[in-house]
Structures are given as C-alpha cells and as structure tokens.
Specification:
By secondary structure, the protein is an alpha+beta fold. It is about 35% helix and about 25% strand. The chain has an eight-stranded antiparallel β-sheet, with helices on both faces. Strands 3-2-1-4-5 form a five-stranded parallel β-sheet. A three-stranded antiparallel β-sheet has the order 7-6-8. It is globular. The chain binds ligand MV4. Ligand MV4 binds near residues 156, 200 and 277.
C-alpha cells in the first residue's frame, strides 16, 4: 500500500479523497492555488504545497508543478479527482514515469476512450449496441450526406475528441446538414484542436443512463448498478439518482454486462463510467466512457454500500476487487442534487462571493459532500459547485421526501444558490413520477424562476 497520497484537485472531491486516505491510514498532500489558501482540503491534509496562480492552467493543470509537489513531499501516489487532469493520458503517463502511482487507468486506456469515434467502433465490434451512424470518422460533408441519407434524419454530428456535449450539432434535414457539419468541425477544432467528427442518428428524447464500473489489476471488472442523470442543463448534470426509475433488473443485467464487456476488453483498471442513451422503448445505446471518478459517484455508494474512492486506492495499489457485485444486492434508492453558486433565473449566472451563514441538513439517510463553511469565499476561477446533497431511502418516495426536507433546511447565505430551484424540481409531477428525459428542463422553464 502507499504511504502518502497527493490529491491533484480542490473543493469537495479533494476532501472526499482525503477522507478515504485517512480511513486507509494513508498520509495526504494537498495542492492549492493562491485562490484556495483558506480551503479545507489544505487544512485537513498532512502536507500542503502552493502550486501557482488562481487560473487553473497556472496551478491545477500544471503537470510539472504537481510532479514537483509530489517529489518534494515524498508522495508515492497521486489521485486526480474529477475534471482538471483526471482524463489527461499524458498526465497519467508522466506520473508513472516519475515512479509515482497514478490512481486511475493507464494513459493508454484514457486515450482509447478519449477518442469517442474509436470507442464507438470498439463497442460496435464487441456487439455493445451503438446508435446507427458512421462506422468511423466522416471525412467531408459529401461523405456525411451519404451516411445521413442511409440512417435518416435527424442526425447528430459529434467531435471525436469531444464528450460531454461540446462540438455537437444536430441536423434536421439535408438542407441543414452541410452547415451543421461545418459548425461542428469548427467548434471541435477550437475546443479540442482536432476537427475529426462522426455521425449518429439523433434520438430526440433519450434518458441518460450510465453504468459505474470498476476494474482491478488481476483482470476482473465489475459493475455497480446504473445512475440516471437525465436532468441536465447545457450538458451539466444537476440531479442524479440510482437506481434509474426506467431500468428493471433484466435491463440492468443487460446494460451492465455490456459495460463490463467494453471495460474488460481494454483491461480497464480503476473506476470508470460507461454512458448510454436509453430510448423510450427500452433500447440502450453506448455513448462514451469516462475514465475517472465522477461527481455523482455518491448515489452509487449509497445504494451499494460500497466506498468507490477507497476501492480506487486499493486497486491502484494492486489489490484485487474486494468483492464482485455486478448490480446485485442493491439497497433502496439514492438521489443527489448539485448545489451551485448560480442564479437559475439569470441563466445560471455564477454568483461567487462570501458565504455569510451556513448550516447543512442532516438526519438519517442524508449526506452532504462539500468544502464550504461560514466565512468561506467562493472564488470566481473554478466551477461553482458548492455542495452535493445526497439522500438515501428505502424507496424512491422516501428518498424524495428526504431530499425535499434536506433542501428546505439547508442554509447558505451570502451567495445565490440553486437550492430553491432544486426544491421545485423535487415537487414537479414529472420528476416525482420518474418521467424525465434530457429535454425535461426545456419543457419546464417555470422551474427556473418559480413563477407560473
Ligand atoms: C446524443 C443525443 C441524441 N442522439 N446522441 C450529449 C452529451 C454527449 N455525451 C452526447 N449527448 C447526446 N448525444 C444521439 N445519437 C443527445 C445528447 C444529448 C444529451 C445526452 C445526455 C444528457 C443530456 C443531453 C442533452 C442534449 C443532448
């Protein structure tokens, strides 16, 4: 096992990883930017190193500073958290080349899944269902028009280097196609430095269902049930739950088995997520694989009773998976709401500033993962996640009631938060009935303001 783990991240996930390390008896190193001097991850870690100016590219994205921080403090492993360098193959390689263990998959595995067109090709080869579309990259608009004519409109053009929604364009018909194709390529080049794109049939109202997988260095991969992340805005997830109200045990076994097949094929090691689109008729299609621990991992922890971050650390140290559950023995229902310092009535505009009062909810089945406290200043440089409220209940209804109670007793003053908005969603008849898809918020704009 390691002796000392450096956490290459900030905010609530840095605290989450520090807790897991402490439980395993490991020392910790926090890194921080000049904007995060007063952060709790710095206080709770055994050692800390300032790695630069507030903008992420000068600090949390600076690979050589992170490696130097690990070397100076004698850390023998690095946990990347999510975001920042978590899915950067070069970072994983550089960490390993410096004789430090990267807590996550290999650089090669990160790159294999980072190329979304190649991942789709691999899924197709393994008979993991994919949406009808181009077999690989589409060279030019003329080639695209031919594929589109074959699969039928609407189609979606996606960036091979993309993921999470950037560099995507929908074309309703042949007339729109050439323009959408060009725009997707342009956006992809600007965002990722690559204008490679591929094509899929566009599904109009899918649910976003993703499978948590975990692999070890002994050739084993298991899955830990699905999460439903259909409530999103501009590709930002706002609410997640497990299990999905749209997935029964038979479907769970099918999707889970498909996810495990894909991850096994590349010898995947660590925690990963295989994303699927779920159609109204129960068909599921592979979308992409994320090679990191995700923001929404706690809903899986609550209904599997399994500590994903501790297991990430154990398997990185070479230990075998502590048991293989494959979606069996699920326990109740969990929901997570992301509380952001944003104003839903003003297009979710960020609201940084000082938290003047703070009191978190509590009680049975209520978990709050956060880094904020009374007097904390929310810096303007990073994403605006303040806290994750995660509830667990014996049934979805019990979890819903717990979430309403928790949100309504959560006091955060000084910054505008999304709490009142989340509270309204928890009372919306379609959400209560589990009738959500990726267009849910577009259909219910009154939720943003609370006005009818
Ligand atoms: C799609 C789709 C419909 N059909 N692909 C969005 C994020 C990126 N990972 C892929 N995305 C989508 N791909 C096909 N063939 C709809 C989306 C999509 C979406 C997916 C999940 C959650 C929210 C979404 C919001 C808009 C579009």
């Amino acid at each position: 096992m390691f002796k000392k783990v450096l956490i290459a991240n900030r905010g609530e996930i840095a605290l989450r990883v520090i807790r897991a390390c402490k439980e395993l008896g490991l020392a910790t190193v926090a890194v921080y930017s000049e904007a995060d001097r007063e952060s709790l991850h710095v206080r709770f870690a055994d050692d800390d190193v300032c790695i630069g100016r507030p903008p992420a590219r000068d600090s949390y994205l600076n690979i050589s500073r992170l490696i130097a921080a690990a070397e100076i403090t004698g850390a023998d492993a690095i946990h990347p958290g999510y975001g920042f360098l978590a899915e950067n193959g070069e970072f994983a390689d550089t960490v390993r080349a410096s004789n430090i263990t990267f807590i996550g998959p290999t650089g090669e595995q990160i790159r294999q899944m980072g190329d979304k067109a190649a991942a789709r090709k691999l899924a197709h080869k393994l008979k993991v269902p994919t949406v009808p579309g181009s077999p690989g990259l589409v060279a030019d608009a003329d080639a695209g028009l031919k594929v589109a004519a074959k699969i039928g409109y609407p189609v979606i053009v996606k960036a091979a280097a993309g993921g999470g929604g950037k560099g995507m364009r929908v074309a309703a018909d042949e007339d729109q196609f050439t323009q959408s194709f060009g725009l997707a390529k342009q956006e992809a080049l600007a965002a990722f430095g690559s204008d490679e794109v591929y094509l899929e049939k566009y599904l109009s109202r899918p649910r976003h269902v993703e499978i948590q997988v975990m692999g070890d260095n002994h050739g084993r991969v298991m899955h830990l049930c699905e999460r439903d992340c259909s409530v999103q805005r501009r590709h930002q997830k706002l609410i997640e739950e497990a299990p999905s109200p749209a997935v029964d045990q038979t479907l769970r076994e099918d999707v889970g088995e498909a996810a495990v097949r894909l991850a096994s094929e590349i010898g995947y090691v660590g925690a990963g997520t295989v994303e699927f689109l779920l159609d109204e008729d129960g068909s599921f299609y592979f979308m992409e694989m994320n090679t990191r621990i995700q923001v929404e991992h706690p809903v899986t922890e609550m209904c599997t009773n399994f500590d994903l971050v501790k297991e990430q650390i154990r398997v990185a140290a070479g230990e075998p998976l502590s048991f293989v559950m494959n979606g069996q023995r699920l326990r109740g229902h969990a929901i997570e709401c992301r509380v952001n310092a944003e104003d839903p009535a003003r297009n979710f505009q960020p609201s940084p500033g000082v938290v003047t009062a703070y009191h978190p909810p509590g009680g049975p089945g209520v978990r709050v993962d956060t880094h904020i406290y009374a007097g904390y200043t929310v810096p303007p440089f990073y994403d605006s996640l303040l806290a994750k409220v995660i509830v667990h209940g014996n049934s979805r209804d019990e979890a819903l009631a717990r979430m309403r109670q928790a949100l309504d007793s959560f006091i955060i003053e000084g910054v505008t938060t999304t709490i009142p908005f989340l509270s309204r969603v928890m009372r919306h008849p379609d959400f209560v009935a589990g009738r959500v898809d990726t267009k849910f918020l577009e259909r219910a704009p009154q939720l943003l303001t609370g006005q009818e």
